From TrEMBL:
Family classification: Belongs to the anaerobic coproporphyrinogen-III oxidase family.
Native species: Cellvibrio polysaccharolyticus
Cellular component, GO, one term: cytoplasm
Biological role: Involved in the heme biosynthesis. Catalyzes the anaerobic oxidative decarboxylation of propionate groups of rings A and B of coproporphyrinogen III to yield the vinyl groups in protoporphyrinogen IX.
Protein name from the UniProt record: Coproporphyrinogen-III oxidase
Names of required cofactors: [4Fe-4S] cluster
Lineage: Bacteria, Pseudomonadati, Pseudomonadota, Gammaproteobacteria, Cellvibrionales
CC cofactor note: Binds 1 [4Fe-4S] cluster. The cluster is coordinated with 3 cysteines and an exchangeable S-adenosyl-L-methionine.
NCBIfam families in the record: hemN
Amino acid sequence: MTLFNTSVTWNNELISRYDLAGPRYTSYPTAPQFSDQFSMSDMHAAIERSNATANPLSLYFHIPFCDTLCFYCGCNKIVTHHKERAMPYLQRLDREMQMQAAWFDTQRQVEQLHWGGGTPTFISDAEMTWLMAATRKHFSLLDDDSGEYSVEIHPGRVSASTMGHLRDLGFNRVSMGVQDFDAKVQKAVNRYNTPEDVRSLVQALRAQQYHSISMDLIYGLPLQTRASFTETLKQVIDLSPDRLSLFNYAHLPHLFKSQALIKADQLPSAQQKLDILQSSIEQLQQAGYVYVGMDHFAKPQDSLVKAQQAGKLQRNFQGYSTHGHCDLLSFGVSSISAFGDVYLQNSKQLDDYYQRIDQQQPAFVRGFTLSKEDLLRQRVINQLICHFHLDFQPIQEEFGIAPTEYFANELAELQPMVEDGLISIDDKGIQVHNTGRLLIRRICMVFDAYLNQGTMIRYSKVI
């Protein structure tokens, strides 16, 4: 039996010892390292390198508008009932695509496309048609339903007919934020979707032949208990989503103003959160879901699980991904592109984003060019966080180093984890054991050259 088919081992003592705050490693280096000194010449040089690879493309569109405010949310969002705000924003997305299409080789096929937010279904069906037509005008989308084209939805705020319209436009995957079914919890965070709403929508999505349905839940919300969350999860499992993400709520009202609307004295304690997580992991595994890593679970036949078993799983800004070979181009306020050896992040402020696009300037305000050292550590972290092992030989061949010598300090720092049974290390590489899977972020932090450099950055706990 492989590690991936084995139930996760829960060890309270080890978790309490290693449960520090740290990055989620949707990128390395992480976003706080991006610099406003990144220049146009840096960007164009990176685009030339990207075009030379002829890698397929992944497109991300950030649609920031929401009808209602979910108190827990830390996303870049604009809460408004004014639907007329959508089209001016979509027109800027079109202009941004036009700029990038002039620089990138647009014959490269778009294997992956994602609308995130915000709430992408804030825009009307007609506006959805308009945006997809604009995208097809600038880029080479697939027409045979073989791409991974996904959209994030609020299941309590979208109709089956709109989902049918999105399916007709080429979308074939759905990620819905369920969060919690308990009525008291929903009221405490101002997020409403009943089990009946979600069940009806899921039935419609299956009838519309969506390839994959993913659901997001959050543990650690106010008034949650182990018993109440067990009931929510029971209802979710009964809906049989293909993938499921279980996110840890980090209460940071100084960073996210809406979180100040949550009553801190209603939040579960740190130990109660761990109890909820432990129970949830056991419940999901008993239901047949595979623990992919961190907060992701999937059915055994899902492409995430197959990619992990084949050694091809990757990680990007949406989490675990099967399309790590694609260059990611992102559009809209706050979105982050990743192609070749660079990251680019657009302005987080809507007015500034508009001004840049209207002046026919790129929307990015920060960027980062990865050095050979960054690429090395990126590879190490990606291998560990996706596959729970690191083979030294490929690293030695690709980067021309002797890993045991080059990472002597890091391997020494890992020794307590060896002694605690989280990992083993030999001349061939590093193997994460079952007891270490839940703590993989903490293991990866050892190879992060940017931690502990004196900059105060607030991260969530690794568990």
